[in-house]
Structures are given as C-alpha cells and as structure tokens.
Amino acid sequence: MAPNSSTRIFRSYLLSMSAWTALSLLTGWQYHIFDQSVHFHTSLTDMLLLAEGRGAAFGLLTPPVFYIVRRFASRAHEGWRYLLVCFVGAAPFMVLWACLRWLILPAWSPTLQQFVSRTTSSPLSLIHAEFADVITIYCATVLAAHGYDYLERVRRQELERSEYQQALAASELQALKMQLHPHFLFNTLHGISTLIDSDGESAKTMIVKLSRLLRVALEQGGSEMIELQEELGFVSEYLDLEGMRFGARLDVTWDIAYPTRHLLVPHLILQPLVENAIQHGVGSSRARSWIEVASQVTAKGLIVRISNSTGGKSAKGTGVGLRNTLARLRYLYSGEATCSFVIGDDNTATFTLILPVLGSNSRLAETDRSQEGELNHARSNR
Length: 382
What we know:
The protein is of the alpha+beta class and 382 residues long. It has helices at 3-37, 44-72, 80-88, 90-104, 123-196, 200-219, 228-246, 271-280, 320-333, 361-380, and strands at 108-109, 114-115, 225-227, 250-256, 264-266, 289-298, 301-309, 338-343, 348-355.
C-alpha cells in the first residue's frame, strides 16, 4: 500500500478514535450520574470503561463507513434503491459492532451491575440489548459521512476552479508578454530603418545592440519576476539604442534608490513605459528632450516613476505596450498595485507605478550597509 494511503488511513482512525474517546467520556459520566439517581451503586470507573468500550467499537467502524459512502455516494441519484442499500447496511454494521464490543470488553450485566465473563455471554446478547442505540448511531454516522463527502466534493471543485483560473490567468499573462516582444521589435526596427541610408554604421551598431537585447529578453522570458536592477539594465540597453537614433536630442537621468535595486518587479514592466515616453516625448518633438527613471521605497510600497518632457504636446499614448502593462499589473497583483499617468503644468508627463515590496530583506540590509559604508568613507575623505 502506498505511504500516502497508509498515512491517510492512520489519520482517519486517529481522528475517529479521538472523537469517540472524548464522546465516550461524557457518556460514561452520564451513565454514572443516572445510576446514582436510581440508587445503583456502580463506580465511575466501570461506567467509563463501559462507555469507552462501546465508543471504541464505533470508532473502529466509522472510517470504513466513511470510505464506503465516499465510494458509492455518486449513486445517491438512484433514490430509493440507494436508501434501501444504506438501510440494509445497518445489519452488518450491528453484527460487526457487537463482535468488536465483545472482544474489547466483556458484556455488562444490568442486573448484577458488573462485567460478566465472556463464557456466559455472546455478541448476540449485545445486539439484543442495544440494537436501537446501534442503529441510531449507524444512521448518524452514515449522514455524517454524506455531509463530509459533500463538503469534500465542494472543496475539490473550488480547488479545481482555482487551479483552472490560475492556469487561465497564467496563459493570458504569457500571451500579454508575447505581444510585447513583436511590438518592441517592430518599433525598434522602424528606428533602425531610418538610419540605414543616413548613418549605416550606427544602424549596424543598433542591430548588434538589438540582438543582445532580444537575447536577454529570451533568457529572462521564463521568469515572471526579476530584480529591479535587472529590469533597469534592460531598459538602459534599450535607451542606448534610442540614444543612437536621437543623438543629442535625448537626455537620460537615473535616480534609483539603492534599497530598491534588489526588489522584485514584473519582467518587461518598465520597457513599454519608457518606449511610450520616447514615442510621445522626444519622438514627437524636434527640441532637446529628456527622460528620468526614478525609484524609492515608502510606506506605500515600491514607487517607480518614469518622467519625460512632452514638448507642449498632450498625447498620452494608449498603445499595445501601455495597455498590456496595465493588464499585467491586474493579473499579477490583483489590485495591490496601482499606476497613474499625469501631465503637469510644466509639460512633464509622469507615469507612476506603486508595487508591493517583494524581495530579500537580507540583501536589502546588505545593500543599505554597503551604501552607508560608502557614505562614511566619503565623509572621512573630506
């Protein structure tokens, strides 16, 4: 028999015997109180033994009843035939209980108020004396088994539904990620095509950088969450590509708080936002433009801001990359992440992500200590 099956059977009997032992203690105490009220001089020990003997027999039979009900509960739709089978099952249950009870303890004589020898009694005498109680407990056990089976089926259905929803969400999330790659590739290749005639060497260099970017994207494609510093490295490579296309027209500023570098963020969550800033910032203006990427940790969580100049234009951009970013946040964080987009009076567009803080506290602490050491070293050299 498989170890899991053995463990499950052991746990079933342990739970059954524990429950019946506790109930039998109360029953034995009640026996004693009743005998005292009618002036029977029985001891509490004898009453507890009598009750525990009956309870032990029921405890040994309860797991098999639950197992049989679980195996055949699917036939409950047969109606009266199924009820007839359950009713007929009372007979073997009663016989088995009487045999187990007779083996566990000798029969109890109400007349003598003591246990009598097994040679002077038989299991049949136990059936004759307690058939009503046994049938009642059998019915209660069968009903409890059906209730437990119903709850288990509901739990399994909920678990299967949850697993199905998770699988569906994962597949939809993967589809969203797959949409980003051709979208990003198309926009970058379009930028390269504009340089082929005017600056062939820069176009070749951009193709090399693009191949390196695609290799990194493929290597990290199986990881849904990566460290912020890895995501920033990918964004930096992408901005280098765009810097070759726009030249001096594009200024990039980084303001990354050290404690945020090892926090986890969704893979490719920033690149579409930076691409949107390029397209609707420097890409839509012939003047000198800028982009700033900043991060910090506050009580609200990990905050990542991508700001850019707009050249007086108010286009917000609702492309595939931006829509997919919002959809991925909903799937990954279930409402725990927020995002906002505003254009200030100074024509600065800012996309703000607020994500739950996920990552290794030990690595964060190590980073904080190293940063503190660098600051102390700088002060000592002044």
